C-alpha cells in the first residue's frame, strides 16, 4: 500500500511500467519505519540521468523527498545503474527514518519515566527532557586520586 500523495518524476529517461513497479515495491518496503496511513505524508521521487552524453560512471540518480509530521527526510544517490541508485537512496532514507523513529521513541520513554518519577515524589530524579548528556554513576565506589599522585603538581 502506498501513500495518497505519491509522485514519481523521470528526468532525461522514460518512466517504464517496469521501473515504476520497481520504485513502488522498493518504497512500500519502508512500511516498518513510515506510516502510510498518515494524512500529511507526501512523497516525491525523482529518477533520471544526470547527463545525456556520458555512458560510463555515475550517470543515473535517484532522489527521495518525504514530508511527514515528524519532519522532512531526503536522500539522494548517483550510481552507474538506475536500480542500484534507487536501492541505495532507499536504504539511506530508511536509515534516516529509523534514526528519527528511535529518537522519538526514546523521547516518549524519557517523558514517561519523568512522569512516573513525579508521581512517586522524585521530582528532579529523571527530568532530563532537554538534550543534556547523561552520565551513569558506577556501581562501585571510586576514590578520587589524591594530589600526591599527580606528578605535575609536586
Description:
The protein is an alpha+beta fold and about 150 residues long. It has a domain at about 5-100: Double Stranded RNA Binding Domain (2-Layer Sandwich). The protein has 2 helices and 4 strands, in the order E-H-E-E-E-H. It has helices spanning about 15-30, 80-120; strands at about 5-10, 40-50, 60-70, 70-80. It has a 4-stranded mixed beta sheet, covered by helices on one side. Helix 1 (about 15-30) packs parallel to helix 2. The longest helix has about 40 residues, at about 80-120. The radius of gyration is 25 Å and the shape is elongated. It starts with a strand and ends in a 34-residue tail after the last helix. The model has no long low-confidence stretch (mean pLDDT about 80).
In CATH, the architecture of the domain at 5-99 is 2-Layer Sandwich
- Please count the beta strands (DSSP E, at least 2 residues each): 4
How many helix segments?
Answer: 2
Structural class: alpha+beta
Question: What amount of the residues lies in strands?
Answer: 15-25%
Rg over alpha carbons: 25 Å
CATH fold call of the domain at 5-99: Double Stranded RNA Binding Domain
The strand line-up of the biggest sheet is: 1-2-3-4
Order of helices and strands: EHEEEH
Helix fraction, binned, reads 25-40%
On the 0 to 100 scale, the average pLDDT is 80
Q: What summary fits the major beta sheet? A: 4 strands, mixed
Quick one: overall form?
A: elongated
* End-to-end separation: 72 Å
Task: Return residue spans where pLDDT drops below 50 for at least 5 consecutive residues.
Answer: none
- CATH homologous superfamily descriptor of the domain at 5-99: Ribosome hibernation promotion factor-like
> What's the CATH class of the domain at 5-99, please?
Alpha Beta
Protein name: Ribosomal subunit interface protein
InterPro entries: RHF-like, RHF/RaiA
Organism: Candidatus Taylorbacteria bacterium RIFCSPLOWO2_01_FULL_48_100
Pfam family, one: Ribosomal_S30AE
